[in-house]
Amino acid sequence: MLKEDLAALRRVPAKGAAWTVLSTEGAHHCVYAATGPWLGLARSRRDDTASPADRARWDTWISILTPPEHLAPKSHADMCVLAGTARDMLRTLRQTLPPCPSVGSVAAEIERQIQNGELAAGAGIRRAAVAKSLRVPGKHVDLALADLAASGLVEAGAHGRTVVTDTNARPGAGHQASGYRRQQDVFAGETRVSAA
């Protein structure tokens, strides 16, 4: 069903197509018909995540894709953005169907490895290696690293390289974990994250 709704979004008129009032109404209908059945699952994903970055992403998608009471005419560019947003949300739902680990559990695993010393201060964390080893979409790793950066465990360095911060330089180091380790949906197995 999700695959079919993603395919339906391809019918939204593309760049260069004739753009009329009728095609605008058809595009609105197509986007909202394809995403409407999935907004409940999107809200559930938003409510279940422990990741602030992931929650913000779901909030944005839900806000944009909830049909307004009155449809206002949109330009071709606006409809392309709306259809692209719809595709992004549906693709993410498809990629994250169980048994895909949550963003919070990805952050918890990286934090565990930092706390255990498997990832030392200054060690680079490679997005692709983490995604591959944890079998998650790369966007999950990006969001998990954003959450860990907000808590001071990692920082984005030059050229987008993410590194583990010095534990001695962090306030309250060793006394307070960011909370991801306490999350109930952490990995059951011992998964390793590759350092750069």
Could you please describe the fold and organization of this structure?
This protein is mainly alpha-helical. 51% of the residues lie in helices and 4% in strands. The protein has helices at residues 2-8, 21-35, 39-48, 52-65, 76-95, 103-115, 127-134, 138-150; strands at residues 124-125, 154-156, 162-164. A 3-stranded antiparallel β-sheet has the order 1-3-2.
| Structural Rg | 20 Å
Report the mean per-residue pLDDT as an integer.
81
Helicity range of the residues?
40-55%
Q: Major beta sheet, specifics?
A: 3 strands, antiparallel
Order of helices and strands: HHHHHHEHHEE
Give the neighbour order of strands across the main sheet: 1-3-2
Provide the β-strand percentage band: under 5%
Poorly predicted residue ranges: 173-178, 180-192
- Number of helices, counting only DSSP H or I runs of 4 residues or more: 8
The separation of the N and C termini measures: 39 Å
Shape: elongated
Structural class: mainly alpha
Could you tell me the number of beta strands?
A: 3
